[in-house]
Amino acid sequence: MAAIRNGDARAVEQLLDAGVDPDATDEHGTPALCLAVDTFDLSVVDTLLRSARLDRAGADGRTPLLRAIDNGAYDITNALIGHGARLWAKDAEGRDALALARYWHETGTVTELRRRTGRPDPVGRRTVRSVEFGACEELSLGNLTVRTGHAAILTSLEPRYGVTTPFDELLARALAEPDVTHDVWFTTTDVLRQRHDDPAVWAAAAALRDRPDPLERYFGAEVLCTTNLFDESDEAPFDGPLVDLFLPWVAREPDPRVAWSLTAGLTDALDPRAGESLPALTRHLDAEVRQRAVSGLGRALEMGNPEALAAALERTGDEDAAVRRAACGALAFAPPGTAGASDALAACLGDADESVRVEAAARLALRDDPRGDDVLNTLRSTTEESPYHWLLDDVYRHRSPGH
Question: What is the CATH number of the domain that holds 384?
Answer without folding.
Answer: 1.25.10.10
